[in-house]
Structure formats: structure tokens, C-alpha cells
């Protein structure tokens, strides 16, 4: 399971849509992802409740089946943003991280590696997860000086 995490408005959902090749998940400047979205392969697009390994339905997670061939091999998880006004979003994200095989940590180039991001990365490292850092919104930087 590949799990995408980061602060709200870091561009996680935009990044996920870029990976999928189409706009499947909602994007916006306000926190838009309120549930964990577990993206899986399905011949037709559909949403449904997420049933955990023990057969229990998780209220804060949904399964989204998409006709994206590479999702046959892995699941991609879009999480609510951390450091959002809605503290429940961060708690939801923290519950899913221990289940991840790898974390894609998205940070925004206009405010990379804030103190709260550093704290969150330390928490992730305590779970001994592999982390890939994605610097998003690089195209919004104005000058060559900003890009260095």
C-alpha cells in the first residue's frame, strides 16, 4: 500500500490525480479530503465502504475502484491533510500510516518543511516506514533563484 500524506493544501490530491492520469479525487485550496480514500483497481469507477482485514467497516475510509491498470498491483491511499483546522483529519491519517508499505510525503515548494511537517516526519520515522519526499508546486516558483 502506497500512502500519500502531507499537510493540507500541499497538493496531495493534485499529485494523486497526476499519478492516476485523470482527475479522480477532489482538489482544492481548503481541506477537501475528509476520509482516507483507498484507490484500487476496478473495471468501472465506483465508491464503497472500506472493509478492514477483520471484516469491520471503517467509517473514516472508503474504497474507490478505478479503471487504472497499475492499480491492479498496488493500492494508492489519499489521506486527509495534517495540520488542518479539523484535527480529526490528522488522527485519521495517523491511523492509516502504520499499515502503509511506503509513504509519499508531499510538501509544497512555497512553504517546504515547516516545523509541523518536521514533527510529523519524526512521528512517521518512529513507525519505521520508508518515506519518499515529493516537493510539489515547483511550477509556481517565480524565478530561478526560487527554484534553487
Itemize the secondary structure elements and their pairings.
Layout: E1 2-6, H1 12-20, E2 36-41, E3 46-51, E4 57-66, E5 76-78, H2 87-96, E6 102-108, H3 115-126, E7 130-136, H4 144-147
Parallel strand pairs: 1-5, 1-6, 2-4, 6-7
Antiparallel strand pairs: 2-5, 3-4
Walkthrough of the structure:
The protein contains four helices and seven strands, in the order E-H-E-E-E-E-H-E-H-E-H. A seven-stranded mixed sheet has the order 3-4-2-5-1-6-7, with helices on both faces. By secondary structure, it is an alpha/beta fold. The mean pLDDT is about 80. The protein is globular, with a radius of gyration of 15 Å. The chain has helices at about 10-20, 85-95, 115-125, 145; strands spanning about 1-5, 35-40, 45-50, 55-65, 75-80, 100-110, 130-135. About 25% of the residues lie in helices and about 30% in strands. It has one domain (about 1-145): P-loop containing nucleotide triphosphate hydrolases (Rossmann fold).
Average pLDDT level: 80
CATH C-level category: Alpha Beta
The CATH superfamily bears the name P-loop containing nucleotide triphosphate hydrolases
Intertermini distance: 32 Å
The CATH topology is what? Rossmann fold
What is the H-and-E element order? EHEEEEHEHEH
| Low-pLDDT ranges | none
Give the CATH architecture.
3-Layer(aba) Sandwich
Helical residue percent band: 10-25%
Largest sheet: 7 strands, mixed
| Rg (C-alpha, Å) | 15 Å
**Which structural class do the helices and strands define?**
alpha/beta
Pfam family, one: MMR_HSR1
Protein name: G domain-containing protein
Organism: Heterosigma akashiwo
GO molecular function: GTP binding
